[in-house]
Amino acid sequence: YYTGGAAAEKCARLFAERLKETADWTLPVEAAVKAESADGILFRLAELPPDADQLDRESYQLTIEPNLVCVTAGDEAGLFYGLQTLLQLLPPRLAYGSFDGPRFDDNWEHRDLSRSLYSVPPALPETVALPKLTIDDRPRYPWRGSMADVARHYMPMEYLYQLIDLMAAHKLNTLQLHLVDDQAWRLEIKAFPQLVKEGSSGSYSGAPGGFYSQQELRELVAYAAERHITIVPEIDLPGHSTAVTRVMHLNCNPSSGVYCIGNPETFPFLEKVFDEVLEIFPSRYVHIGGDECPKDAWLNCPKCQALMKQENLASGEALQSYVTRHMNDYLQSKGRTLIGWDEILEGGLPPKAVVMSWRSQDGGVEAAKLGHYTVMSPTGYVYLDYRQSGNEPFGGALLPMSKTYQFQPTPPELTPEQQHYVLGGQGNLWAENLPTPAHAAYMLAPRIAAVAEAVWSPAEVRDWPDFARRMLTQLERYSAMKFPARQPRVFFEAAEEGVRLRSELPGASIRYTLNDEEPGWTSLQARDGQLIPWQDGKTLQARLTGNHGALFPVSSKKLYRPQIHFETNMTQPYGMDHGPEAAWDYDEATYFWSGEPQQDGQYLTAVLHTPKKLDNIRVATGDHGRDILHQGVLEVSADGRTFTKAADFVDGEAAANRIDQPVKAIRIRVTAPDEHWLIIKEIETTEAAK
Ligand code: ACM
After folding, report:
1. Residue 379 CA, closest ligand 1 atom number
2. Quick check: CB of 341 below 6 Å from ligand 1?
3. How far is CA 361 from CA 341, 422, 454, 638, in A?
4. Across the chain, which distance is largest between two alpha carbons, in Å?
5. What pLDDT sits at residue 395?
6. Count H helices, E strands: the chain?
7. In a 3-state reduction of DSSP, which class is residue 563?
8. Probe residue for ligand 1, chosen from 291, 385, 426 as the CB with the greatest number of ligand atoms within 8 Å
9. Helix axes 76-89, 6-23, angle to 10 degrees
10. Contact 423, 142 (CB under 8 A)
């Protein structure tokens, strides 16, 4: 039933259509003559107070009583979110569809990592019992975002539609589309057809190129709007612009990928482009990028130098700020608001510009203190292209879901007035390493659920163990949506007496084997933290189990009692697969990772159970230049008590040759404080010939 207006009828129909599609159930949709007398499911549009803001419009109440399920809201957005919650209360098979395998599994070499197996796939229920409850729900922030980078690799429209469905189910309301970058220009501009003709073939890995027609994007914008999602286009400038400046000859010199600002054709070109962008995307906010712009071409360009002199601009940063100001004036004249990455703060922020803080949350703090709105999307919490575990097949630095879940968009150092300028947060998915939709889906989900909770729920109800428990059902929902989310694993933590099983989702049950058989429902069962004693030569296989017979991917490890143990005074939030033993496991891809800034006197010591004569010791720290040891020493000990220096760390590495005493212990010691954490990638040794 519906009552109160067309929006209520629309949501009632959406609900009925969903159950028709997933289960072939036919629910009649009728106007309720009197709300109270309805007996069934009622969508009720209520009065909104005249001063209602966006958060009021997105709020809803859901009550479930013996004969009536009722969603009440003052706006279609709130009803839509109430509908999403109602779907979450249904069995996933009924709410989201069948379980016939992920939709994007073509060309997906890591298919097994995103596939959960059901011993018996969940059946369609004949009836559903709902709990009696009342939910009063309201989002914490108005900007609840997800960014898709479709420039580095083209993503087919089908993926973008599925992404919007996924976002809607998470009550996310903003999709930032990163449409252009150095590799490619993906959006049709009628005034400059050569842009997509010549500029859309590129990608990072040589995957096929592609572009979006204006008609395709208009249809996507409309589809998103129906689901209360605004698409914010990003046209990155003045850097990340190799594709466009090469095609249009708008760079300072042929090898620069940055717009020439001294060229009198640059701003007229950009305005013609944005005239079309604004026609396609009605969003209030328009993203102009602004990140990572190299300034050297400008400083060596006669045209840019002349402009800087004329405009009294003393630095490259001041010239970029000039560009931002120009685009800000243009967008404001069209009734829009400029948003850019936090580099737009450098050289001065134009009036009303919004800062998207990515390098950390500091840019957002600075913006809020200046009275500018900001969206938080810091690398350390919500860069979803970062690896989810130490042995991820691709991705950058480590960002496990437990860390994403700690994301707090509003930093505590802001005063209540300044906090008001934090519009919300956003998970970003850069696509350098994501050539297909299946890769992208694997990185996006399930961490996007942690982002969604950070931007919707009040800080005080956030609870990682509770989220981890609910995640088991959320993973079922992804399977039902046929969205190939990454599935959770068991990690192995070496201990003196054996290997400890660690569940990535605290509380999830573990099945394991030691007999080379794949673990299943009849295998041995273990709890999180259980110790499996060393059994030399045997292979330990373990997997997490979920609801309704779900079996998650298998982790395996050959068991050998180690010949070394480790001692350290560094703390490690990522102890699971970044424990000390990862620093000496003959695998450069795994590493020890501390979880605090480096301090003078911190150490990691490897103790050899039998002293050995060694020719060489080499230690590498840092990963892709991150968290390296700048000031430290490599020390050795013959007795495990007194140490002598064998080498200094230079550029994150230390090497010692021809050590003249048998080595009982090797110590890596920090000798000066450093704000970064410490990664020790690998300790390599060469034994002396006998
Ligand atoms: C960015 O990650 N370059 C905004």
Report:
1. 2
2. yes
3. 11, 11, 15, 47
4. 94
5. 74
6. 19, 31
7. coil
8. 291
9. 30
10. yes
For the chain, the first-to-last Cα distance in angstroms comes to: 85
In this prediction, residue 36 carries a pLDDT of 63
Q: What is the position in ligand 1's atom list of the atom closest to the CA of 428? A: 2
**Contacts (Cβ under 8 Å, ≥6 apart) of 115:** 101, 102, 484, 487, 553
Instruction: Give yes or no for residue 81 CB within 6 A of ligand 1.
Output: no
Q: What is the pTM of this model?
A: 0.87
pLDDT of 118 reads: 85
Taking the chain (690 residues) in consecutive chunks of 10 residues, what is each chunk's mean pLDDT?
95 97 94 77 95 97 95 98 98 89 70 81 90 98 98 96 97 98 98 98 92 98 98 98 98 97 98 98 98 97 98 97 98 98 96 97 98 97 91 79 96 97 98 93 97 97 96 94 93 85 93 97 95 93 94 92 87 68 84 90 94 94 92 96 96 92 96 94 86
The owner of tokens 């509908």 is 83
Phi, psi of 185, rounded to the nearest 5 degrees: -115, 120
574 lines ligand 1 (CB under 6 A): no
Mutate to test the pocket of ligand 1, among 429, 430, 432, 433 (most ligand atoms within 8 A of CB): 430
Query: Does any ligand 1 atom lie closer than 6 A to the CB of residue 674?
Result: no
DSSP one-letter string for 640-659: SSS-EEEEE-BTTEEEEE--
Instruction: Please report the pLDDT score of residue 660 as a whole number.
Output: 85
Paired with 540 in beta bridges are 557
pLDDT at 662: 93
Q: What is the pLDDT of residue 123?
A: 87
* Minimal-distance CA residue to ligand 1 atom 1: 291
- The per-residue DSSP string of 466-521 comes to HHHHHHHHHHHHHHHHT--PPPP-EEEEE-SSEEEEEESSTT--EEEESSSSPP-T
**Residue 105: its pLDDT value, please?**
63
Atom of ligand 1 nearest to the CA of 240: 3
CB 89 within 8 A of CB 522: no
Q: What is the rounded CA–CA span in Å between residue 409 and residue 456?
A: 11
Question: How buried is residue 334: exposed, middle or buried, by Cβ count under 10 Å (0-12/13-18/19+)?
Answer: exposed
What's the full length of the chain, in residues?
A: 690
Task: Determine the residue of 234, 240, 292 to mutate for testing ligand 1's pocket, defined as the one with the most ligand atoms within 8 A of the Cβ atom.
Answer: 292
Beta bridge partners of 232: 176
Q: Does any ligand 1 atom lie closer than 6 A to the CB of residue 291? A: yes
Q: Whose CA is nearest to atom 2 of ligand 1?
A: 358
Q: Which atom of ligand 1 is nearest to the CA of 292?
A: 3
The residue whose CA has the least distance to atom 3 of ligand 1 is: 291
> Which two three-digit tokens encode residue 395?
């991705």
Interval between CA 516 and ligand 1 midpoint (Å) = 45
Cα–Cα nearest to 323, from 350, 296, 357: 350
Residue 655 is encoded by which pair of tokens? 């090497």
